[in-house]
Amino acid sequence: MPNFENDRRNALKLGVAGLGILATSASAFAQSSKPTMSKATSGKPDTQVTRHRTAKVDGIDIFYREAGPANAPVVVLLHGFPTSSRMFRNLIPALSDRYRVIAPDYPGFGQSAVPDRKDFKYGFAKFAELVDGLLTQLNAKQYALYVMDYGAPVGFRLALLHPERVTALVVQNGNAYEEGLKEFWKPIKAYWANDTAENRNALRAGMTPEATKFQYVDGVRDPSRVDPDSWVHDQALLDRPGLAEIQLDIFKDYGTNVALYPKFQEFFRTRKPPTLIVWGTNDVIFPADGARAYLRDLPDAEMHLLDTGHFALEDKGDEIAALMRDFLGRKLKSS
Question: What is the pTM of this model?
Answer without folding.
Answer: 0.86
